[in-house]
Amino acid sequence: MKKFSNIFIVVIGLIVLLGFLEYKGLIWHNSLFAMKYEVKGLDVSHYQGDIDWALVAEENQYQFVFIKATEGHDFVDNKFDNNYRVVV
User: Fold this and answer.
1) What is the tally of structural domains in the chain?
2) CA–CA separation, 32 and 43 (whole Å)
3) Is residue 10 a contact partner of residue 41, using CB atoms and an 8 Å limit?
């Protein structure tokens, strides 16, 4: 029984660690699922903060970008104007 509880604690610890790393943006679980697709794009909004568009262009791996403009009936993304100007 003690061996089972130790394994359980390790598994929970790994799940918490992976969740924290994804929350901080150090790992992206979606990258694993997207690997098989040839066409790749970005979905950007104020959540990403200031985007280094020069670096994105340098990586040369994205064919399209979705830029958030609004959400619901009363939210306007404050990064939209800047992101749109740079991309277009």
Assistant:
1) 2
2) 16
3) no
